[in-house]
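Is this the right way to post structure tokens for a design question? Let me know if I should format differently. Anyway, here goes:
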């Protein structure tokens, strides 16, 4: 039954997958190794001496990193997992967002440890309505072993959902009526980008965007700049803050090129070609994720200078993006 007392037949089919295997006898593609530990620590800015030297251990939070399949994926995923996603996709719940994870550490991981794992579909929620849209939360549990000894547990929760309609558009668990458009669709079949989730912690940022200002938080106690917006300072913990406006100058710190799934709303033409997503280091020292425009996706490079612009993606949404220069 859902919140209106109507029987949810899809949920009854989905919950039958609880307890079924999501991965069977999986194995890490590489043993625990020093280069990956070093790269992790550099990316995270973690200088803990326990993670270096002849007796080094891996940072516990790397637990999932040793089980990831990379771009080529894993061949040991259980059929039940694909079937579950197929049911959701077929019912119109095609969008996905990771919501949270929980990890339990049972023993330190050291260079040379061989990682194996099994995973199970632990729970499927009843249909829930969120600001993103309506869908189902799926929780998987991975039990990780090192040298055949229990090493940790990783629970990962996602939301498979049907995006909420933009303001003024019809929405609901069923298909919209004639003339209505879902989030992700324009009238006439064109695509729109997903709506950002605006809450009390980031409303000021989006208000700035609407005025063509990119605002950065500055701690009222220690003056540390921070981005993205947070309710408190991650340097001193103070809840007091003010804003400073970014100059708009920056450089590409790192980037990825999105090839799949093809999504026309993120493309610059009517097609669905790949597009670049960059971590941009602003002149003020903080970093933010955004699209790089103005250059072909395969010409984006680390260190490329970029300049802030505000891109209207549809009549109801404007976003900060960065224009690159090949020169």
């Amino acid at each position: 039954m859902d919140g209106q007392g109507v029987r949810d037949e899809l949920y009854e089919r989905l919950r039958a997958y609880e307890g079924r295997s999501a991965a069977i006898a999986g194995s890490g593609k590489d043993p625990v190794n020093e280069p990956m530990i070093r790269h992790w620590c550099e990316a995270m800015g973690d200088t803990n001496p326990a993670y270096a030297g002849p007796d080094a251990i891996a940072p516990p939070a790397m637990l999932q990193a040793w089980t990831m399949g990379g771009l080529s994926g894993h061949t040991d995923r259980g059929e039940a997992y694909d079937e579950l996603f197929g049911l959701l996709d077929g019912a119109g719940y095609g969008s996905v967002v990771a919501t949270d994870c929980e990890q339990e550490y049972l023993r330190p991981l050291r260079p040379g440890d061989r990682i194996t794992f099994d995973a199970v579909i632990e729970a499927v929620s009843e249909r829930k309505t969120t600001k993103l849209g309506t869908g189902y939360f799926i929780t998987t549990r991975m039990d990780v072993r090192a040298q055949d000894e229990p090493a940790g547990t990783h629970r990962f929760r996602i939301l498979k959902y049907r995006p909420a309609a933009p303001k003024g558009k019809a929405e609901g668990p069923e298909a919209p009526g004639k003339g209505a458009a879902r989030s992700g669709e324009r009238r006439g079949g064109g695509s729109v980008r997903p709506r950002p989730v605006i809450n009390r912690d980031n409303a000021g940022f989006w208000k700035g965007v609407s005025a063509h200002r990119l605002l950065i938080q500055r701690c009222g106690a220690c003056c540390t700049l921070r981005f993205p917006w947070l309710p408190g300072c991650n340097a001193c913990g103070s809840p007091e803050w003010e804003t400073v406006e970014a100059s708009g100058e920056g450089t590409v710190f790192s980037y990825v090129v999105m090839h799949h799934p093809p999504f026309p709303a993120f493309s610059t033409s009517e097609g669905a070609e790949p597009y670049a997503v960059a971590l941009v280091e602003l002149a003020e020292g903080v970093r933010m994720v955004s699209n790089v425009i103005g250059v072909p996706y395969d010409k984006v490079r680390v260190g490329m200078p970029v300049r802030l612009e505000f891109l209207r993606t549809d009549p109801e949404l404007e976003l900060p993006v960065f224009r690159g220069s090949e020169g």
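Format looks fine. Someone answered above. Worth noting: The radius of gyration is 22 Å. The chain has a mean pLDDT of 87.
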